[in-house]
Amino acid sequence: MKIKITSAFVEVQDKALEFYTEVWGFTKKHDIPIGDFKFLISNYGELGL
């Protein structure tokens, strides 16, 4: 089974980004500010999203 796309809502976005990039090896693709929040897009491996 392959998961192609998913979403995760988190309370502390900077901490979540650090976890996904440093622990799981994801790459940050986009970081779009939206008021007090942000919309983050990351990928893993050769997904090329």
Task: Give an overview of the whole structure.
The protein is α+β, with helices and mostly antiparallel strands and 49 residues long. It has one domain: 2,3-Dihydroxybiphenyl 1,2-Dioxygenase, domain 1 (Roll). It contains one helix and two strands, in the order αββ. Strands 1-2 form a two-stranded antiparallel sheet. The longest helix has 11 residues, at 13-23.
Q: Provide the CATH top-level class.
A: Alpha Beta
**CATH superfamily, called what?**
2,3-Dihydroxybiphenyl 1,2-Dioxygenase, domain 1
Number of helices: 1
- Gyration radius from CA atoms, angstroms: 11 Å
**Overall pLDDT:** 84
Q: CATH topology, which one?
A: 2,3-Dihydroxybiphenyl 1,2-Dioxygenase, domain 1
The CATH architecture: Roll
Strand order, biggest sheet? Answer: 1-2
Please report the distance between the alpha carbons of the first and last residues. Answer: 19 Å
* Multimerization status: single chain
| Number of beta strands | 2
Task: Give the helix/strand layout.
Blueprint: H1 13-23, E1 27-34, E2 37-43
Antiparallel strand pairs: 1-2
